Amino acid sequence: MIGLFCSPLTFINRVSPQISKSLRYALSALGLLLLNILSPPVVLLAGCWYKGVSVETVLTEAAFGWDVWGMWTQVVVWCVWWPAWLIGGTLLGASVVC
């Protein structure tokens, strides 16, 4: 599941400075909006809301899975998804500045 959320992040690039400034701002804003929809906290909160489960319950079960079953979910989220999401946001944010 994490791979599905991370795969669009590989296609993020800076918006070309050769296009008009207003179009570059619009594309960057749209990209940042979509990127924020795919952020790890938003996906966690949306999943909890959809399933009707509290965030505390999900995090408690994740900690149980790490401690008892040796699941690596937290490592994948914090060491794969979060850095990819952060770099994608940085690239899109740099498109607005340039």
Key terms for this structure?
elongated; transmembrane; mainly alpha; 98 residues; Gaa1; membrane; GPI transamidase component; transmembrane helix
Outline: elongated
- Terminal-residue CA separation: 34 Å
Structural domains: how many: 1
Radius of gyration: 17 Å
Order of helices and strands: HHHHH
Uncertain parts: none
Q: How much is the average pLDDT?
A: 86
Oligomeric status: single chain
Percent in helix: over 70%
- Work out the helix count: 5
Structural class, from secondary structure content?
mainly alpha
- The total strand number stands at 0
Topology:
Blueprint: H1 2-6, H2 21-37, H3 40-51, H4 55-69, H5 73-97
Helix pairs in contact: 2-5
Compose a concise summary of this entry:
This protein is an all-alpha fold. Helix content is 76%, strand content 0%.
Task: Give an account of the 3D structure.
It is a single chain. The protein has 98 residues and is an all-alpha fold. The protein has one domain. The protein has helices spanning 2-6, 21-37, 40-51, 55-69, 73-97. Helix 2 (21-37) packs antiparallel against helix 5. The longest helix has 25 residues, at 73-97. The radius of gyration is 17 Å and the shape is elongated. The N and C termini lie far apart (34 Å). It comes from Aspergillus sclerotialis.
